[in-house]
Design goal:
Blueprint: H1 2-15, H2 20-34, H3 43-55, E1 62-66, E2 70-76, H4 77-80, H5 90-107, E3 112-119, H6 133-150, E4 158-162, H7 181-187, E5 189-196, H8 201-216
Parallel strand pairs: 3-4
Antiparallel strand pairs: 1-2, 2-5, 3-5
């Protein structure tokens, strides 16, 4: 039975290129069938991050989850930022610096990228700096990403993403439209994802090849885009705090 399963695994990996998350699911299923322990990816790194949080007494405020893709670190936004601000709080700056240092040390020998997500509740922001929660969430994610980069993490393996209020973990309002403050607090969060760089690469390559074929076979000449104007705006600096 073990030989048969191993042979199936070898054939599958030889004739196809599943993304990393599907491959991990296959490994876990195979391990269960063989009666051996399945070790999740980046398990040692996950333990190190939990130890950092424990030493900072933040283990109850920041959750570390292991997934088929890697590691997900979830923190309430109030730990990282004051309301309406994109300036990292001192405590969040300290613990993020330690996590970033641990990741940077491992990045040289591990193929992973770091994606930072900014999430808000559904309350509109009132600020002269941010027209909406889209800009606020994206700027907060970029603040964390810039800290990672300043500590030596690879620029090409960093991804800031602003989700505004589009992915709540709890209902922002009750059935009468009244805000649920406890739930809104949960939705204001920062998520740091440590992911295998090979996730989705197969699909991306297929899409790129399809797009290239479409361009080559197109009967209509495609217009050439004009060169983009270079921005003369100064680099984003810490902005004054605003309140919602």
């Amino acid at each position: 039975m073990m030989t048969l399963l191993f042979g199936f695994f070898v054939m599958l990996t030889a004739f196809s290129k599943p993304d990393a998350s599907k491959l991990e699911q296959l490994k876990e299923a195979t391990a269960q069938q063989m009666g051996v322990k399945y070790v999740k990816p980046y398990e040692e790194l996950s333990k190190e991050i939990k130890e950092i949080l424990k030493e900072s007494k933040l283990e109850n405020e920041v959750e570390v989850r292991q997934t088929a893709e890697g590691i997900m670190i979830v923190s309430k936004g109030t730990l990282f930022f004051d309301s309406g601000s994109v300036k990292l709080k001192e405590r969040a700056h300290e613990v993020t610096t330690q996590i970033a240092a641990a990741l940077t040390q491992r990045a040289a020998t591990s193929a992973f990228r770091v994606t930072v997500e900014g999430h808000t509740d559904d309350a509109p922001i009132i600020s002269k700096y941010f027209p909406s929660n889209w800009e606020l969430s994206a700027s907060r994610a970029s603040t964390v990403v810039r800290l990672f980069e300043s500590l030596g993490f690879r620029h090409s393996d960093l991804r800031p993403m602003g989700f505004s209020d589009t992915e709540p973990v709890a209902k922002n309002r009750d059935d009468n439209g009244k805000p649920i403050s406890e739930n809104q607090s949960l939705n204001r969060r920062i998520v740091i994802r440590i992911q295998n760089k090979n996730i989705g690469e197969g699909a991306k390559k297929i899409d790129a090849k399809t797009d290239l074929n479409a361009v080559q076979n197109s009967p209509i000449p495609l217009p050439v885009a004009a060169p983009a104007e270079q921005s003369t705006s100064p680099a984003l600096k810490a902005l004054p705090e605003d309140r919602k």
